[in-house]
Structure prediction request, 302 residues.
Amino acid sequence: MTLIPFHDRDGVIWFNGELLPWREAKVHVLSHALHYASAVFEGERVYGGEVFKLTEHSERLAHSARVMGMELPYSVAEIDQAIRDTVAALGIKDGYVRPVAWRGSEMMGISAQVCKINLAIAVWPWPSYFSPEARLKGIRLMTSKWRRPAPDTAPTDTKAAGLYMICTLSKHEAEAEGYDDALMLDYRGQVADATGANIFLVKDGVIHTPTPDCFLDGITRRTVIDLARARGWVVVERAIMPEELADAEEVFLTGTAAEVTPVGQIDDYRYTPGEVSKTLWEDYDNLVNRRPVGSLPEAAAG
Prediction:
C-alpha cells in the first residue's frame, strides 16, 4: 500500500480563520509547540457529513488550551462552525477531523508569553482505526513499560500533545512485537487505558472500567457507558489491577478512532468477543449513523 504523506495532499485546511490550500498550511521550524509541546488537539469523526458530538469536542479543546495557559482566539461556537465549513468544503461524508492549537514562533525558550495562539482544522477520509478483520476476532495488546503520569505531574485531563509521546513509544514497541496496540498502566500500577482508547472489562455480566483520574475521560467512553446502562447493564468505574485481566470474560476498547473494538488478547490472556462487546459495537454504530439504537444495519440484518 502506498502511503500519501499528509503534507502533500489536495484540498483545503482551515488555518487561523481562512481556508488555505492544503499544501500551504505550514508552521515555522522554530514554532514553540515543536520544541516544547505547547499544543493541544482533538480527534473527531464525521458520519454521513456530520461530526459526532461536535460541541463536546470543541469544548474539550478549549478546556485543554486553558489548562495549558493558552486562550483560544475563537469561541466554541466559532470552532464548531469552522469545522462544519471545512467538512463541507472538502465534501467529506465519512472521515476524521483534527483541530489543533499551538504556540507560534514569536518567542523561543521555555517562556512563551507573547507567542501567538494558532488554530488549524484538517479533515480527511478515515476508515476503521483497526482493520475489520482484527476487530472481529479481537485486537492484541501488550502491556507497555511506560506509565500514565500522576495528575500532579502533567495535565492528564487534556489532549495535550506532550502526553502522547509515551503512547507513540508504547505503540511502536507493541507493533514491533506483532501486537496491535499497547495497554497502559498508571503511575500506581493500575490499569489505565490503551494508547488512544479507553478500556472496559466484562466480569459476571458486569462492565468494569478504570476511573479516569490520571488519563482522558473519553467522549466515546462516556457515550458507551450511557449505551450500556440504557440496556440495563451495570457499569462500575473503579481501580482495576492488572491481575484482574485473568478473570475477564470480555475486554473492549472505546475511542473516537477505535469506536468500539473488542480485544482478543492482552499479553498471555486471551478473550473471545462476546455479547456485550458486539452489542455495544452495534449500538454505537447505529447511534453515530443516526439509526435507531438496538437495530442492526441492513447488511447485518439480512
Q: What stands out?
A: Helices lie at 32-36, 54-67, 76-90, 132-137, 165-176, 219-230, 275-288, 298-301.
